[in-house]
Amino acid sequence: MIESSTLADNSFVDIGFYDFEEIKEKAHIPALHGVAGKVLDVLQSRIGNSSLSIEDVADDMNLSKRTLQRRLQQQVLSFAAIRDLVRFNHAIKCLLEKNMSIESTSAYLDFSDRTSFTNAFKRWTNISPSVFRKVYRDYV
Predict the structure, then answer these.
(1) Nearest to 94 by CA among 78, 116, 110, 75
(2) Which of 3, 33, 69, 129 is exposed most, by the fewest CB atoms within 10 A?
(3) Residues 106, 129: Cα–Cα separation, whole Å
(4) Which residues, in sequence order, are CB contacts of 63 under 8 Å at separation 6+?
(5) The pLDDT of residue 122
(6) CA-CA distances (angstroms) from residue 43 to 14, 24, 29, 126?
(7) What is the CA angle 39-44-45, rounded to 5?
(8) Does residue 1 carry a pLDDT above 50?
(9) 64-72 average pLDDT score
(10) Predicted structure pTM score
(11) Residue pLDDT, tens place only, 80-104
């Protein structure tokens, strides 16, 4: 299970990290409590349908953006880290299970463009989404 410290530093996959089971474990979304749990619930309900911006999530929670940030900070978490983990988890499903295109996956995960998604995916796994799909497509 991913500890909140992993969420706090935004580093999911270390250099040279290519074992699929480890990648799935790193993309696993842990149980979060308090405000972080509510953020997770809102993000999960919005993914693929609506914006994943902090402003929209805060609005859904009837909080200001700044109040949401402060409450997450009290839990030693950030909105960006939680959103990244949700996106990473869903990216694997989109690319391997749903066989969605990289462009469609990018839009589904509310990235501004394909390049932004590819850069985030490389940050999470150290490989591009297209290479990831080619290497791991037989694991699902």
Answers:
(1) 110
(2) 3
(3) 10
(4) 71
(5) 96
(6) 25, 19, 12, 24
(7) 100
(8) no
(9) 98
(10) 0.86
(11) 999 999 999 999 999 999 999 999 9
Would you state the structure tokens that stand for residue 139, as one six-digit string? 């694991």
In which residue are the tokens 């950030």 written? 78
Show the tokens assigned to 2: 């991913």
Structure tokens that stand for 59 in this block: 């609005």
Work out the mean pLDDT of the chain and round it to a whole number. 89
Give pairs for 76-79: CB < 8 Å, separation 24+: 76/4, 76/5, 76/8, 77/4, 77/7, 77/8, 77/32, 77/36, 78/7, 78/8, 78/10, 79/39, 79/54
Cβ–Cβ < 8 Å for 102, 119: no
Q: Which two tokens stand for residue 60?
A: 């859904």
**Residue found by looking up tokens 């009837």 in the block:** 62
pLDDT of 130 higher than 80: yes
Query: DSSP class of residue 97?
Result: I
Half-sphere exposure for 14 (CA within 13 Å, toward CB): 3
Arithmetic mean of pLDDT, 2-10: 47
